[in-house]
Amino acid sequence: MTQHTKPAGILLLLAILLLSLNLRPAIAAIGPLIQSISQDAGVKSVGISLLTTIPVLMMGLGAIYAARIRQALGERGGITAGSALIAVACLMRLWADDRNGLFLSAALVGLGIAVIQALLPGFIKRNFGARTSSVIALYSTGIVAGAAIGSGTASWLEDQLGWLSTLAGWSLPAALATVFWLLASHGSQHEGRSSVQAAARSVPFWRIGRCWSLLLFFGIGTGAFMLAMAWISPFYIGLGLGKATAGLLLSVLTVVEALTALWLSFAIGRFPDRRSLLVTSLLLVAAGFLLLIVAPLLAPYFAVSLLGVGIGILFPLSIIVAMDHLKDPTLAGNFTAFVQGGGFIIASLVPLTAGSLRDVFNDLSYIWLLMSIASLGMLVLAVRFSPASYQQFQQDLAELQTGELKPA
């Protein structure tokens, strides 16, 4: 349990929220700016998808090496470095008026996000104990709220400042979050650099079958989040809606996501068995994508709201369920990083696949259908994530650490 006084705990919560708000705007702002980026930087649909795919791929690679990052930088120092890197990468975009500059800044943004996402869940569990699930949900709320702000303000800011300054402007809140984090996290519980203890508890999670189930689950859930964020606005522009209306639909989706995730941060304690929430979220996501296929213009706000509620539950829960499996903060952090690493790599392929299909067929219905099928397929995994199954996982982990577990 945390040793913080109540005021210090509140400041730390605020610092975590500020950090999380900066984990998606640099990516979310791309969608509403597609036309300008395509015209001025000569980037086609696949290239636009890469501006989303590259950061997500970097998130995956960063999560895979979470244990090493923790050993090299420590939790507090690593999170500080990640936030500072986001600020620098966004500022670079002021001069990134060609595809190479945009791709480089996307990679650096992704690396900064990766370091924070790899280290922050373990830090939260270490400092908030029994409240970890609620704080993780609040952290996820910040992520989707940041996406809502980034996408919702992009078109207006572009009209005022131009698209380069719109993208670069996110360096300021990232820099402010970095400073606030340094102040608020002073005196917090965190694992430092070159920890022998952390190295000793580096575990080959890939040998346990449940790890792959959680990895796939996180990948599909995050893929749905990234797909909606990148392509909802261009999809509706392609159907003939104005840029402002298409941007508003994306804003509605992300605001609904944020409000749903915020609700989850308060309600999660009433659901010790997460399966009912997981099943509900998957059905809503599948229904939302199917509605985009069969009747996208009949009730567009209803369609994006279905997606918003579904993803708003699914995205944070995919992290919470992974954290549920372990009590030790370092092990839980490394395990969650393993799940996120592979999951983000899977998720990075979703927007890229969407861009490729759009270039070939001039239609996004195929990717909506694929995501609907994938969401329904995840129901098979969701019903297996019972609290009782965590004990079997912990037993498998203990056997793995003593060398008694056979490969999955």
TrEMBL record:
Residue ranges crossing the lipid bilayer per the database entry: 47-67, 79-96, 102-124, 136-157, 163-184, 211-232, 244-264, 276-295, 301-323, 335-354, 366-385
Alphabetic keyword roster: Membrane, Transmembrane, Transmembrane helix
Gene3D superfamilies noted in UniProt: MFS general substrate transporter like domains
Matches recorded under PROSITE patterns: MFS
Limits of the Major facilitator superfamily (MFS) profile domain: 8-390
Keyword Transmembrane attributed: yes
Protein name: MFS transporter
Species of the source: Vogesella alkaliphila
